[in-house]
Every structure is written in C-alpha cells, then in structure tokens.
Here is the input.
Amino acid sequence: MSLTRTVRRRHDRDESTASRDSIFTRSAAMLILSVCAVYVLVPVWWLVVAATKNRSQFTGTNPLWFADVALADNIRALFAYDNGVFVRWMLNSVAYTGGAALFGTLLAAMCGYALAKYRFPGRETLFNVVLGGVLVPATALALPLFLIFSYVGATNTFWSVFLPSLVNPFGVYLAQIYARASVPDDLLEAARIDGSGEVRTFFTVAGRLMFPGLVTIFLFHFVAVWNSFLLPLIMLGDQRLFPVTLGLYTWNTQINQIPELRGLVLVGALLSVAPLIVAFLSLERFWRNGLATGALK
Here is the structure.
C-alpha cells in the first residue's frame, strides 16, 4: 500500500509540474504573439486614424485617435487631384499585378509540375538554378533588366514592368513541392492510358489537385508585384504608367513643396492596401489549405 501511495504521489507531482510548465509555455507564447500583433497593427491603426483627419487636425490632435472624421472628403479630394491621376495609378497596379500574378502562377505551376513529374537530363541542375533564382535579390536584377529593355527600346512601357513580373522562381519551387505532394503518379498514368494528352492531363487532373497550392502561389505573387517599387522606378518615366506604389512615392517627395499632398499620401496609402485585403479574405480558405499541403510535404 505504501508503495502504491508513493507512486501516486510521484504521478500527481509530475502532472502538476507538467501542468505548470504547460501554462508557462502558453503564457509566454501568447505574450510574444501579443507583442508581435501590437507591433504590426499599431502602424495600420495610425494610418486609418490619420486618413480620417484634415490637414490641421493631423498635427494638432492625438495621433492614435479620431478627431472629426473627414474620410469621405479626403477620398474625394484624392480622386480629384491632378485630374484623377491616383485612380489611374490604381488601375495600372491592378493591370500589372492581376495579369502578372495570374499568368505567373500558371507558368510557375507548369514549370513546377514538369520538374516534379518528368524525368529528363539536367532536371536536378535546372531545379538548382531555380533555387538560385530564389536567393538572388530583385535589386541585383534591376540594372540588367533595364539594360535589356533599353537595348530593345521597351523602357517606359507597360511591358517593361509586366514581363519581368511574370517570373517567379519561388512560385516554381512551391509548385514543384505541391505537385509531388498532391498529384499521384498512378493517376497520371491512368489518364495517359485513357488517351489524355500531357496538356489536357495537366489542366484537368494535376491542375485541379494542385489548386489550393496554386492559390497560395498566386497570393504570394500578387503581394510581391503589388508592392513592387524598384522595377517601376527604374523602368518608367511617364507618370501615366506609374503603379500606385511609385505614384505615392513621387507625391511623398514633393510634400515640402506642396504640403497638401501629405493628407493625400496617407489616404492613398490606406486605399492601396484594400486590394490586398480583399484578395486575402476572398482566397483565405484555399490559402490555408495550400500552406497545409506544403507543410505536410
């Protein structure tokens, strides 16, 4: 009986220690996450509050709380400034980003699928080149791209920003992982036996199985192209072709000469985030599934 009591006491003591450790671990994790959330959300909150103020309230009121909410008036002033150039910048960004993300995701899916499912000489070398492309920073490619487009006379055009944005080495890497994880070889062989060609097999079989992962690639590519700044800065000189990131930057550099641009930049920055929020909320379910697939692999 004494031995049984001793074992029970030890067991209860171990459970109590494990429970305390678990509570401490959860509390520490929640504290770290809370600090990170505050770090991320405070600037966003400041931007939302600042966008609702007029010029005098911006410097004379609490920076983290509302005064007289004039967001609608600020948006009307933004859209009317310089013959509505901000609206054109937003449309340019939608054109650059939507097209590049859509076609870039398709190209990445095809490349990743080929690397995952086909056997050919130099496949590993090609995949290593793709991995190397992931590691090369965009700043290192900006000047060579400018020289290439300048040589063919294509700078200061829509294509000088759109075509380089199609290339997505990280998307190819992710697509290769998703193809290996979600597309069984037996299913592809069955499709080929039934007479399906390679292109049809990709779109009707592999593409559907890879779809959650492709949504993840699309979102990553969408955010990267939407926030692109250096490439348009180097390639474009015509204000009518600017994306919203470059347009707001040019306004920001003129604030000392034109003080009213400060409020327009803040409202424009707030509105420029809206497409990203819409994209994430619309595709959130598929995005989570895609991340889970990659994690399992």
